[in-house]
Amino acid sequence: MDSPLSIQDMKPVIQSPDHTDRPNISPSVSPSTSSTKDLQKSPRKSSESETETESPDKGKSKSPSKTKASPSQDRKRKAEIDEETRQKNEKQEEERQKMQVLVSNFSEEQLNRYEMYRRAAFPKAAVKRLMQSITGTAISPNVVIAMAGIAKVFVGEVVEEALDVLELWNDSGPIQPKHIREAVRKLRSRNTIPNVKKKKVLLS
Amino acid sequence: MAESEKDQFDEEDNEEDVQPEKRTKKIFSKELRCMMYGFGDDQNPYTESVDLIEDLVIEYITEMTKRALEVGRPGRISVEDIIFLIRKDPKKYSRVRELLTMSEELRKARKAFDEIKYATTK
């Protein structure tokens, strides 16, 4: 706990260094309700195959059965689903423990940064005001929660990409606007950021 | 007297003269600084960088809101619209799902807590 953890120390604990792993490492308490199943059904990049079992009839077991619903088949399917949920919960529990080990070994500077990372959020009132000024109608609180969360992920993507650009250009110090602009250009070409400025030409 | 009035007018005009796209009043500055530090920037990020990211965020929220107005029930925004817009982006999609699930759990927990409190204080 005296020296800050290097990337080499953290490699065995972190599953994969690339950013697409973020959905896996959920910094929050992992809800162990059945709605975690929805999480798994979401369209994810293929790197998350470890959360999905490889049984060939998995697709069949997840979708509502339209074929004959004999009681033994129902029971079998239910057992499969229960097994998958249990595996999922196990994996989440394992991940949480790994996170705990990691955080307990942070240096003070790392702890500070991690605290800021978890705590920083957009004020719901300001987001709601902004959205209402655009729509003119009332906005439900769930929408505000979702939008504030998405905006935070957006900032994360831009800042992380800007840090990559900074490293690529062998600069140092705080991020400068030129890094951010290059980062945004890269993200737009990857379609991560919606492009407003491009004019769609259908037939020319 | 007339000149000071004109000065007052000028000042007012200058304040309201900014185009709707440009933002002089920053609404996210404090939180954004903390957020950038949390995501890896320096402990004191440059003000120009913070401003630039704030403009980007506001543009992003605006764009999403406008698109959400067209999707689903036109003229209204529901959570399903947001989820639909975000469906291709794995990070954001799973984050939204996680947030809504947690928010629902918190609501249930709060309700259960209130019921217990009501039952015990009756």
Task: Kindly list the characteristics that best describe this protein.
A: 204 residues; mainly alpha; 8 helices; B: 122 residues; 74% helix
Brief overview:
The complex is a heterodimer of chains A (204) and B (122). Helix content of chain A is 56%, strand content 0%. With 204 residues, chain A is mostly helical.
Total helices of chain B: the number is 5
Outline the low-pLDDT stretches of chain A.
15-63
Helix/strand structural class of chain A: mainly alpha
Q: First CA to last CA of chain A: what distance?
A: 63 Å
Supply Rg of chain B: 22 Å
What's the helix-strand series of chain A? Answer: HHHHHHHH
Report the β-strand fraction of chain A as a percent range. under 5%
Order of helices and strands of chain B: HHHHH
Rg of chain A, rounded, reads: 22 Å
Assembly type of the shown chains? Answer: heterodimer
Number of E strands of chain A: 0
Report on this model:
Chain A has 204 residues and is mostly helical. Helix content of chain A is 56%, strand content 0%. In chain A, helix 6 packs across helix 7. In chain A, 17% of the residues are buried. Chain B is an all-alpha fold. The longest helix of chain B is centred in the C-terminal third of the chain and has 32 residues. The N and C termini of chain B lie far apart (69 Å). The chains are: A mainly alpha (204), B mainly alpha (122). At the A-B interface, helix 2, helix 5, helix 6, helix 7 and helix 8 of A face helix 2, helix 3, helix 4 and helix 5 of B.
Please write out the topology.
The complex is a heterodimer of chains A (204) and B (122).
Chain A: H1 7-10, H2 36-41, H3 58-62, H4 71-104, H5 108-119, H6 124-135, H7 141-168, H8 177-189
Chain B: H1 2-16, H2 29-39, H3 47-70, H4 79-86, H5 90-121
Helix pairs in contact in B: 2-3
